Amino acid sequence: MTLQWTVVALFLYVEIALILLLCLPFVSAKRWRSVFNLSIWNWLSAYWNKCFFTMIIILIVLFLDALREVKKYSASEPMQDAKLNPNLFDHMHMKLFRAQRNLYISGFSLFLWLIMRRVVTLIQQVAISTDMEASLQGQTESANQSAKKYQEDNLRLRQALLDEEKATSAQNESLKKEADKLVKDLKAGDDAVRKSRAEVEAMKKQSEGLIKEYDSLLTEHQAVQIIYDGAGDKKDK
């Protein structure tokens, strides 16, 4: 294996190891995101896109070269010529095998390179979604607690209003009873005043009658006194 294909094979093995490492179930996406946020990755992020596309171009070129080699050694004319010479036939098969091996190595390297970037992107998205979900869950719990507190305050205020309404109703009932009692007392007072007025009128009428009777008796008394005085004068004469 030539140097370039040895490097590509090592690159393929590294890709397989990294993808298996990224797919470990016990390492969370949040932990991988913390690893990706290290300062070294921030420094390499400026060169990451250039390196990524450069590697894609190199792998595509190697893949096309391997594909050309496979077509070259799979053609019918070289194989017919190689059948006349057994050593050449084995050599052609070895070349074809190496070309196919290089084709698979470059193809899988290109495929896993794209897969690895996609896996890293998905891990970061999952970590961001997890953080957002945790934040939204915290906000939801806070909103639920606030709603529960507001509901308790509302129930407390409603109970206070009911108690106040009951107290007001009881006070109104007491005031109504007192008003009814005062009305009854006022009515009784009015009746007593009317009765007193009636008695006063009766006494006044009776007094007027007594006065008239007294005047009549006084007049009679004066008349009798005059008659009595006149009779006495006659006896003295």
Which helices and strands appear, and what pairs or packs with what?
Blueprint: H1 3-22, H2 29-36, H3 39-74, H4 76-83, H5 86-236
Textual characterization of the structure:
The protein is an all-alpha fold. The protein has a domain at 3-135. The protein is 94% helix and 0% strand. It is built from five helices and no strands. The mean pLDDT is 79.
Keywords:
mainly alpha, rod-shaped, 237 residues, 0% strand
Q: Whole-number radius of gyration? A: 64 Å
- Level of helix content? over 70%
Structural class: mainly alpha
What sort of overall outline do the alpha carbons produce when their principal axes are compared? rod-shaped
State the distance separating the first and last CA atoms: 200 Å
Low-confidence stretches: none
**Number of contiguous helices:** 5
Number of strands: 0
Q: What would the average pLDDT be, to the nearest integer?
A: 79
Main pleated-sheet profile = none
**Could you spell the SSE succession in H and E letters?**
HHHHH
How large is the share of residues in beta strands? under 5%
A few lines on this structure:
This protein has 237 residues and is mainly alpha-helical. It has helices at 3-22, 29-36, 39-74, 76-83, 86-236. It starts with a helix and ends with a helix.
